[in-house]
Design brief:
Shape: elongated
GO biological process, one term: GPI anchor biosynthetic process
GO cellular component, one term: GPI-anchor transamidase complex
Strand content: 5-15%
Largest sheet: 5 strands, mixed
Pfam family, one: PIG-S
Number of strands: 14
Strand order of the largest sheet: 2-1-3-5-4
Distance between the termini: 68 Å
Protein name: GPI transamidase component PIG-S
Helix content: 40-55%
InterPro entries: PtdIno-glycan_biosynth_class_S
Number of helices: 15
Length: 546
């Protein structure tokens, strides 16, 4: 008992005798153990090889994206845009590359005058023409006829021949069959060799301007409707003539190298069921088609339709009824063949007439703008329509065909066709130039539009043929080159692969790429940011140690 008490006393004495430093160290160890239990255990430090390996993996992914993925994506998705000569195309559209001036050669045939007198009259008349020229698109060039008094082989380059014959007074008249202006002159009206002006030369110049006034008005109308800034003094035309010219140009068909002519016989009953249309065309229309051959080509077909009910049932047709006479739902008119525009010529045999005043025109036919013509015949007692009955309808169709083609109305037929060649050349040249300008503006306005190499080839061909057309204005060669230029320009402008890009805006691209690139891009960006943070932390640690 005494021994246990003494041991406890010894323990108390020993505890009281411990130093304070020992007690403090014990308490700190206890605090460290408690704090270690509260904080999570840190992972072991990464090896330098693992850090480099992770950096290499991130770098390899970005290397593949930047140097392999992006170039392939850029190459496969970049819109190809062929190089276009935009400045030259705008030059054509604005009239800087070619000024449409048509040289018109006029020959003077004066068998009763001496060569010196003819040359002097030509010089003074040319001066009068140049001084009074108010339209720069026409250049009337006078020259001495190489065939004095011999017109058996006319020169195709000569648009008009002035045939001078002596008479009592100065008179003039256009020949009805040939491109000849018959002019009579008093013998004392021929100017002297030293004369600077002449009344007869002024009269001759005025008659020449009058002979080409219709062509001049049509050319002025075409240039006014085009985008070319063509400087000229306004032509003095009345409001009635301007309206008539606009109506005539609206009525004309768009130029085409080939037209398809369809002749249709429609009857209100079972007869007649046949007609001699082939022989009537060969006899009454084919000569005009042959003259139009250098400007247009024609294909022809015919058809007969029985029990054709017109759209108007009244016997006397008014002007308002004409627009609904053709029953398009039941009349099987032939469609366009081979892509060429179709001109319809319809002969309807039935008990119907046109109720118009006799002074206005015919009461049996009418012309439909940009479509064709209709001719009404009374009911036939026979089952066959001979060519003699078809003479007047076919001649009317020939006249209407010339109107639909835009042929002038004054002068002989060869002179009118020569004028038609120049008008069509100007029309097609302006249209091709306008198409090039529209294509250039479209390319500048839409930088994301595709321009395939075929468009560039078409533009090059169009400008090449435009240059040839500009060098041969007024002739059939110039018309042919202008036609090719217009076809190539329109083909380039309406390229299918290029037009499709107009309906694919940039918003569609975002909608396509965002769902694809989002899941791939987010891990790449986050991994790169983590590596950059780790690199900065490691660099900061090295700086502290240093």
């Amino acid at each position: 008992m005494s021994s246990s008490v003494s041991a406890a006393q010894d323990d108390n004495i020993s505890s009281e005798s411990k130093p304070a430093a020992a007690i403090d160290s014990d308490s700190s160890e206890t605090n460290d153990e408690a704090s270690s239990l509260l904080t999570p255990k840190q992972p072991p430090p990464e090896k330098p090889e693992d850090i480099r390996r992770r950096s290499y993996i991130v770098a390899s992914f970005w290397f593949i994206v930047l140097f392999l993925g992006l170039p392939i994506w850029w190459k496969t998705t970049t819109i190809y845009r062929a190089d276009l000569p935009l400045s030259q195309m705008m030059d054509w559209a604005d009239g800087r590359a070619c000024s449409p001036v048509f040289p018109i050669k006029i020959a003077i045939d004066a068998p009763n005058l001496q060569k010196e007198e003819t040359d002097n009259l030509l010089r003074i008349t040319q001066q009068a023409l140049d001084s009074a020229n108010d339209f720069k698109g026409h250049h009337l060039q006078l020259e001495t006829s190489p065939l004095a008094g011999k017109r058996s082989t006319p020169d195709s380059d000569i648009a008009l021949t002035i045939r001078l014959t002596p008479g009592d007074a100065a008179t003039s008249s256009l020949h009805s069959q040939e491109p000849i202006l018959e002019v009579t002159y008093p013998p004392n009206s021929i100017p002297a060799s030293d004369a600077a002006s002449s009344g007869f030369a002024t009269y001759l110049a005025a008659q020449l301007r009058l002979a080409f006034s219709e062509e001049r008005n049509v050319m002025s109308y075409l240039l006014a409707k085009s985008s070319m800034p063509f400087e000229q003094r306004p032509l003095e035309t009345s409001q009635d003539s301007s309206d008539s010219l606009a109506k005539r140009m609206t009525r004309s068909l768009k130029y085409s190298q080939t037209y398809h002519l369809t002749f249709s016989l429609f009857t209100s009953g079972p007869s007649p069921s046949s007609w001699d249309i082939e022989s009537a065309i060969d006899e009454y229309m084919q000569p005009i088609l042959d003259l139009l051959g250098p400007i247009h080509n024609f294909t022809i077909d015919t058809q007969v339709q029985l029990y054709a009910t017109p759209g108007v049932q009244s016997q006397v047709l008014s002007k308002e009824d004409l627009s609904s006479f053709i029953n398009a739902a039941e009349w099987p008119l032939s469609p366009s063949i081979g892509g060429a525009p179709t001109v319809n010529f319809v002969v309807f045999i039935g008990n119907q007439t046109i109720g118009t005043a006799s002074e206005i025109g015919t009461s049996q036919s009418w012309l439909i703008p940009q479509w064709g013509s209709v001719y009404l015949l009374p009911p036939s007692s026979t089952n066959h329509v001979p060519s003699e009955v078809l003479k007047q309808p076919v001649l009317t169709f020939a006249s209407h065909l010339l109107s639909l083609l835009g042929t002038p109305q004054s002068g002989s037929l060869p002179m009118r066709l020569s004028t038609l060649t120049r008008i069509r050349s100007a029309d097609v040249l302006l249209r091709a130039s306008s198409s090039l300008g529209s294509l250039a503006r479209l390319s500048l306005a839409l930088p994301s539009i595709s321009i395939p190499s075929s468009v560039a080839d078409g533009v090059a061909k169009s400008m090449y043929h435009l240059q040839l057309a500009c060098s041969n204005l007024g002739g059939t060669d110039g018309l042919e080159h202008a036609r090719i230029a217009d076809v190539e320009a329109e083909r380039a402008f309406f390229e299918k692969s290029m037009v499709g890009q107009l309906y694919f805006p940039d918003e569609h691209k975002i909608a396509v790429y965002l769902p694809l690139l989002g899941p791939v891009g987010v891990p790449l960006v986050i991994g790169l940011l983590n590596q950059i943070k780790a690199w900065k932390a490691a660099r900061a640690g090295k700086m502290k140690v240093a």
